[in-house]
Design brief:
238 residues; alpha+beta; 8 strands
Amino acid sequence: MPSRPLSARKVFSLLSAAGLGLAAAATVLPASAAPPQDAREQFLSRCRERTLAQNPGADWADSYCAETWPAVTRSNPLVDVLLSPFAEGTPAALEPADVKARATAVRWQAARPGAQAFEGALGPVKAEARRGPPTQLMLSWTAVGEPIPYEVEEALRVRGAQVEPIGCYAYGAGESNAVYRVEAAGRVPFALTVYRREAPTGSAWSYLTLTVDAERRIPTFEGLKAAEADPAWTTDCG
């Protein structure tokens, strides 16, 4: 059976109930591997092509893509953590404690012996390793009235990873949930779920939640629709 990603509404309610108030994204994150020298040019070309396909004739495409690039590079420490459970040769069924041990960049809080859930932080980003089931690693960021400062999918692509949408849906223009299949060098394939909610007003909350299935279960499009039937799932995820 394919695993069931957290629904967008469930993520939203969990974060709201937690009352998360994290520092601004400018907080220094751990150092990460530098992207290839031509990474920026490749990203700008890919971004411009996609933006013009979605918005034919847009004269703002170049400036939009240039402004997005810092969010791509800022995402590298998050990418390091998300990739950490999937090194080739790693056991397929990881416990939360195994995930915690591999995500060394996270500052994990002390936990009781035998714990099945762990919390920590990666700069302004909250990290959780827990048993759902399945075992999951989740990174979450939230702030009032701020744009989301990360572009993890593009940061993966900049590193040469194949990031292919399995399915996605949207609640209006600023809220979406997408599930991707990720294949990266030296890693086994895995599923990444990205929930985004851009604050519609200066007093509203923005949310970003990134979830990976540490047991390597990759859902199908039909499986996503069967697990969560209400949203209008599509494979056209931009």
